[in-house]
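User: Hi! I'm a student and our assignment asks us to look at how structure tokens line up with a sequence. Could you show me two examples?

Assistant: Happy to help. In each example below, the sequence comes first and the structure tokens follow. Example one:
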Amino acid sequence: SSLLLYNSVGAINETALSSLSLVGNLTQHIRLRADSDAEGDETGAGFAEVFPALVWVVRDFALQLVGDAGEPLTPAAYLERSLRPAPGLSAQAADKNRVRRALRAFFPARACATLQRPVEDEALLQRLDLVSDSLLRPGFLREAQELRERVFTS
């Protein structure tokens, strides 16, 4: 099966949501254009069926994954909470909700993986390509291995 790995830094925020929405909109436009050219159908019914599954990778993740009541959250639950409708009736809230709705429609199969910062030392971070695994944080190595397994078994 196909996967789209979307890579962002820090946290899932409005900027990252909007960027991914642009990817989805562009892909939808290309697909709908191809379908309408081939079949004369511009409705786009079922476009989500051709989209790959999404794995949102959040690098340098430092947030505590806890819910409103202090319960632990999985990365997948964190993503789903980020895609919930924003409260309010303002134009800004409507725009945010349009983006969230589109992402939920484009990517009905979705997951999230968080990767903590690989090292704490800034000097090592600047030359990460030369750093041996023994100097990387154990949590980062574990999370990276889990992500590799997810990608290669999909």
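Example two works the same way, sequence first and then tokens:
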Amino acid sequence: MKQFLKILSFFMLLLLLTAETCTDGPVETTREDRLSGVFRNIEDEFVINELTYETLNAFGKRAVQKLNDLTDYLNIYADTSLSEEFRFQAREMVLRTFNSEMDLQTYFENLSVFEDTTNILLYFSEDEGVFFTDIDSIKTTELFQKKTISSYTGKLQFTQKIFSINSNDTILANIHKCNIGIIVSKTEKQFGNESQDVWTISFDNIE
């Protein structure tokens, strides 16, 4: 990771110093200021311990996008026309959306969907019905609050619809109003041979 930052820094330095200018004195000062800003921004991104209002707001928007992404992954996981490998990858992405496997299973139970772990497929109800799902009416019900030195929590509410598919028709089989917790926390990530704590977002406390 340090090597990557060095390469990035040298690239930015080269870009700034080779830019064409008409004068020397004032422009050199501007270049130095800009270069210092680059270094500060790179460093702050990794060492900051407390998130700003603007950053938390950005994470809130990311949470909404993450819910929409979750819908896509669920529909891939439930699609019998796709390969097992593709459905397996979708299942992995669904799991990464949640804070734990237990949170994921609670979410499935609330929606009345079940996993066939042998064939890697997601079904609606115990009758193994084929389905697709959609999410709408997403709104923030709790703004982010600092929970610990390295985590923030908030809450979203949304409506999830399950459409059952059979040979004759597609019907709206289930509507579930969900409340879901959002966690923004520092997680250790591996970058080559080095590790670094970075801020990540996931869901838990599904109701």
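Here is something you could point out in your write-up. Residues 4 and 191 are 9 Å apart (CA to CA).
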